[in-house]
Task: structure prediction
Amino acid sequence: MIRLLGAAFTTAADGDQRDDAARAQVSSRLGIAPAWAVATQVHEATVAVATGPGSVGEADGIVTTTPGLPLAVRTADCAGVVLHGEGAVGVAHAGWRGAANGIASAVAEAMAAADAPAAGAVIGPHIGPCCFEVGPEVLEAFPDAQAITSWGTPSVDLAAAIEAELDPVPLRRTGGCTRCGAGWMSHRADGTPARLAAIGWVL
Ligand SMILES: [Zn+2]
Result:
């Protein structure tokens, strides 16, 4: 597990975070409540405000000002992003569609609307530009975040895209490439249904 102030990103060793037992164990290690606010993720840019645990419905961003309420998105190649403001936290699930639709900045806007603008953000393990091979239609959506895979084909750098989107809010990068790195979960690598979690809570 990657542990930061008010944020954490799980690894494969922490288990499938769709699973209650795995979530309980992670919560216990972090000293946070075991009941998280989560969303049915649909790869869009809708942000929900959570006031208690459980599902907020279909959304790819969640924001709260409730102390002690963990928020989480679940990923396996997509990026989880945690944003912190004074008295607020937000999480975003950003695959290429979410990033192209501005999910991270939508979360930042929702925090600003709650009078707690994001002061910093952290991006967790996700498929890196080394492995995120995309077709021309995806490449076109990221004119400023194009890269090349380790085997020489066009790819997208999700962290660069999100960093540009959030500017001037600084984005810290953690974790590695989920597909070619060891110890993550990657849908592209092996089709796993299991998921990592990006968790945030109010400081
Ligand atoms: Zn890679």
